[in-house]
């Protein structure tokens, strides 16, 4: 959702020293709101099952629209029409890509064939197979890891220098060419150079934003899945480069631009997925919830920049296994049951712009 790419590991020091920290760890050991936690479980049991009739058409339709629009961006001569197609392709492929988030949480038996189809249609063509998130994102939800140095998806952005935010966002545009080099060059070379293979796996095989994160070697069935996904990505990447040498670079260049904008969208979404105020302490579940963000209605644009349920990111941290199509109803029920002046309501914000302003203001105070 990226939230979260290989290039982000070039972001400078994610952990400010004591002199740079803002007084923002007030919530790290906040007592859990047991009423909220209990209500979240009890009021939503009946809508906790993933519905194939929603997942499949949504994913397939988003991918089909994205690739059709991408073809238009490549083939159309009219620059305005081509640009419009490119923008539509970015938004549609963004939605299709973010189903990788669902794959990490949904039960393996809930959607037979969905993981394979998603990788075949989305993950491998865009060089972001599901193994880059599976086994990584669950660590972000671990009770004792969230917000700590062991969390692959956390950086205390609110406590860092102001210039860190634009650097963090803009480096995402380098993700597509970096992935192309990874799959077409580094992975094949790693077959004959074991140290390179280890380095690529540890440092360039996870959708993480913590530069200090090192991925452990895959094992068992997961290792076999990684092998086939890596093979598919390498074949696809090499074929893309070969076709570009033979027929010209314009199609690949346009595709890279489209996916770069998709990566940038996800990076901006990542900036406002949390408040990023924790300096490394383990946090209670309620503290993790309050460090996360919901952008519910009436915010009308949030489904575009935070699709597939990610507009309810704080709620997702309360109910990680809840399917994306049920989060809106979960929010409605919990809001009605708990009321406005409660812990639950404190994680809701009006939109993208106010959240970006809040984050930028935090970095100014952290100087």
UniProtKB/TrEMBL annotation:
<dbReference type="InterPro" id="IPR005804">
    <property type="entry name" value="FA_desaturase_dom"/>
</dbReference>
<protein>
    <submittedName>
        <fullName>Fatty acid desaturase</fullName>
    </submittedName>
</protein>
<keyword id="KW-0812">Transmembrane</keyword>
<feature type="transmembrane region" description="Helical">
    <location>
        <begin position="80"/>
        <end position="100"/>
    </location>
</feature>
<feature type="transmembrane region" description="Helical">
    <location>
        <begin position="53"/>
        <end position="74"/>
    </location>
</feature>
<dbReference type="InterPro" id="IPR012171">
    <property type="entry name" value="Fatty_acid_desaturase"/>
</dbReference>
<feature type="domain" description="Fatty acid desaturase">
    <location>
        <begin position="82"/>
        <end position="340"/>
    </location>
</feature>
<keyword id="KW-0472">Membrane</keyword>
<dbReference type="GO" id="GO:0016717">
    <property type="term" value="F:oxidoreductase activity, acting on paired donors, with oxidation of a pair of donors resulting in the reduction of molecular oxygen to two molecules of water"/>
</dbReference>
<dbReference type="Pfam" id="PF00487">
    <property type="entry name" value="FA_desaturase"/>
</dbReference>
<dbReference type="GO" id="GO:0016020">
    <property type="term" value="C:membrane"/>
</dbReference>
<dbReference type="GO" id="GO:0008610">
    <property type="term" value="P:lipid biosynthetic process"/>
</dbReference>
<feature type="transmembrane region" description="Helical">
    <location>
        <begin position="112"/>
        <end position="133"/>
    </location>
</feature>
<keyword id="KW-1133">Transmembrane helix</keyword>
<feature type="transmembrane region" description="Helical">
    <location>
        <begin position="167"/>
        <end position="193"/>
    </location>
</feature>
């Amino acid at each position: 959702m990226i939230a979260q790419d290989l290039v982000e590991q070039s972001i400078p020091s994610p952990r400010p020293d004591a002199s740079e920290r803002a007084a923002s760890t007030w919530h790290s050991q906040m007592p859990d709101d047991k009423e909220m936690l209990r209500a979240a479980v009890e009021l939503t049991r009946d809508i906790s099952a993933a519905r194939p009739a929603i997942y499949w058409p949504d994913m397939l339709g988003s991918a089909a629209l994205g690739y059709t629009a991408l073809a238009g961006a490549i083939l159309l001569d009219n620059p305005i029409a081509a640009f419009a197609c490119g923008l539509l392709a970015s938004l549609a492929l963004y939605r299709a890509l973010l189903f990788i988030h669902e794959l990490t949480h949904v039960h393996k038996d809930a959607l037979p064939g969905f993981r394979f189809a998603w990788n075949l249609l989305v993950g491998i063509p865009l060089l972001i197979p599901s193994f880059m998130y599976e086994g990584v994102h669950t660590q972000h939800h671990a009770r004792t890891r969230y917000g700590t140095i062991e969390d692959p998806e956390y950086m205390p952005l609110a406590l860092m220098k102001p210039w860190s935010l634009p650097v963090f966002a803009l480096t995402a545009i380098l993700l597509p060419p970096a992935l192309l080099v990874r799959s077409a060059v580094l992975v094949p070379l790693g077959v004959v150079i074991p140290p390179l293979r280890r380095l690529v796996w540890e440092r360039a095989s996870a959708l993480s934003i913590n530069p200090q994160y090192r991925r452990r070697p895959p094992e068992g069935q997961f290792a076999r899945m990684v092998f086939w996904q890596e093979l598919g990505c390498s074949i696809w990447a090499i074929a893309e480069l070969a076709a570009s040498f033979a027929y010209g670079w314009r199609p690949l260049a346009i595709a890279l631009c489209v996916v770069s904008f998709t990566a940038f969208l996800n990076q901006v979404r990542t900036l406002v997925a949390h408040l990023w105020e924790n300096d490394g302490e383990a946090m209670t579940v309620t503290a993790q919830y309050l460090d996360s963000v919901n952008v519910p209605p009436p915010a009308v644009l949030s489904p575009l920049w935070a699709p597939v349920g990610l507009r309810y990111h704080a709620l997702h941290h309360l109910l990680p296994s809840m399917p994306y199509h049920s989060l809106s109803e979960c929010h409605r029920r919990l809001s009605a049951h708990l009321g406005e002046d409660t812990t639950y309501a404190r994680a809701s914000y009006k939109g993208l712009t106010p959240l970006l302003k809040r984050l930028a203001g935090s970095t100014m105070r952290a100087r």
